[in-house]
Structures are given as C-alpha cells and as structure tokens.
Amino acid sequence: MNEFLVLLLAYCIGSIPTALIVSKVFFGIDIRDYGSGNMGATNTFRVLGSKYGTIVMVVDMLKGLAAVKLFLLIPYYTDPIHTTDLVNLQIGLGLSAVVGHIFPLWADFKGGKGVATLFGMVLAIQPYVALACVGVFLLVLYTTRFVSLSSILAGVAFAVFILYIFDEPQQLYRIFAVSVALLVLLTHQKNIGRLLKGNESKAGILKYRDRRKARRRDLDDVD
Predict the structure, then answer these.
(1) Number of C-alpha atoms within 13 angstroms, CB side, residue 153?
(2) What's the domain count of the chain?
(3) What share of the chain is helix, strand, coil (3-state, %, to 5)?
(4) 93 in Cβ contact with 85 (< 8 Å)
(5) What is the pTM of this model?
(6) Is 57 exposed, middle or buried (0-12, 13-18, 19+ CB in 10 A)?
C-alpha cells in the first residue's frame, strides 16, 4: 500500500460523521439542523447533552488516532531510521482525517471543526503534549462550562507546549503546531464573537454545581 492510498483511507476515517450518527440513532434528528448547525462535539454537547457530547468527542478523537496509525501499513515507516519521514507522514495522515471531519464524504461535506480529531492525531504522535492539552481543555471546561473556549485555549496551548515547553526539534511539527493554533482560532470566530457578547451557550455538564452556587448567592443576598 502506498502513501496516497493510506492518506485517502485516513480521509475516509475522518469522514465518519459521529455526531450525525449519534443524533439520528438516539434522537431521530440531524444535529446540523439544531444549535450552531455544526456537526461536532461542541454542538452535540449543546444540543444533546454531556453524555452524548462526550461520546462524540471521544470517537472523533479516536478517528484522528486511528488515521495516524495507518503508517503501520507501510513497512518503510516502521524502521526507526526514517523518523523524519515518519513524522511527515503522520502529520499528513492526521490532517487528512481532520479534513475528512470538516468536509465528510459520508455527510454531504458538511462536518465539524475538527478539534477533537486534531487532539486524537496529537495523541498518536505526541501523547504527553496531547495529555497536557486535554488537561487545559478539562480545566477550562470545569471552570467555565464553555466547550468552545476550552477548545480554543487547548489549541493555543498546543502551540505553546510544542514551541516552548517540550521544545519539539522537528521543524515541520513546530510549523504544524502554530498552524493548528491559527486554524482553531479561525474556525471558532463565531464562537469567539458569542463569547465576547456573552451569548455563547454553556455545556450541560456541571450545571447542578452552578445552580448550587446561584442558590448560595441568593441566600447570601437575603442575609
């Protein structure tokens, strides 16, 4: 199997419309007709709740991870002496999956923003960096309940980790990290606008914690 075929296969894996499948199987709806109209984890959290949002997010991450691992189908890249070529192919495979997620072959080329798939890709190539980014994502999500803000800051943190904290020596990977941060900012322009205006929807997760805080504030005001 040559590089073109594995890149095409990676695109097909990325094209699996997780959110669309979940929304149709469990709710009988097309997720793209609700919320932001986006077929990704953020909109799934918003429309279908934290349980199904989490399922979509995890599966979309696995798409990126599985796509990167397709290098195993080509023996040349399993040789440790071809490290640079391997990283180049892995980035290509991951990006093919991300493109598939954003423009899915199986869903009329109307997909999501690719952040979860990007995380899965990074998890396969740089697991420690990926875990650090997930930590940023979860911390922001716990603090704010904004999935979009969590994704944006995790994407920006990815570039910071690669360039400064882990000081990745591969130049192509450093360029890729900066490109990812810019891509995440670009694809979340509408979310950024809603965040600035205070109109962005929060995920259903931890809503009971916020209600308890609100009740405490009301009681304090009464006192």
Answers:
(1) 17
(2) 1
(3) 80, 0, 20
(4) no
(5) 0.81
(6) buried
Main-chain phi, psi angles of 191, to 5 degrees: -65, -40
Alpha-carbon Rg for the chain, nearest whole angstrom, is 19
For residues 64 and 94, is the Cβ–Cβ distance under 8 A?
yes
pLDDT at 79 over 50: yes
The domain in which residue 154 lies consists of: 3-222
Say if CB 129 and CB 138 are below 8 A apart.
no
Structure tokens at 38: 């986006």
Is the C-alpha dihedral spanning 95, 97, 98, 103 positive or negative? positive
Q: Mind listing the pLDDT tens digit for each residue in 97-114?
A: 999 999 999 999 989 888
Residue 220: enclosing H or E segment and its boundaries?
A: helix 207-222
Q: Which two tokens stand for residue 121?
A: 């890709």
Candidates 45, 40, 46, 44; CA nearest to 60 is 40
The letter for the amino acid at 59 is: V
Is the Cβ–Cβ distance between 52 and 22 less than 8 Å? yes
Residue in the block written with tokens 């959290």: 45
Query: Interhelix angle for 171-187 vs 189-197, to 10°?
Result: 50
Tokens 């999501």 sit at which residue? 112
φ/ψ of residue 8, rounded to 5? -65, -40
Closest by CA to 144, choosing from 214, 61, 205, is 205
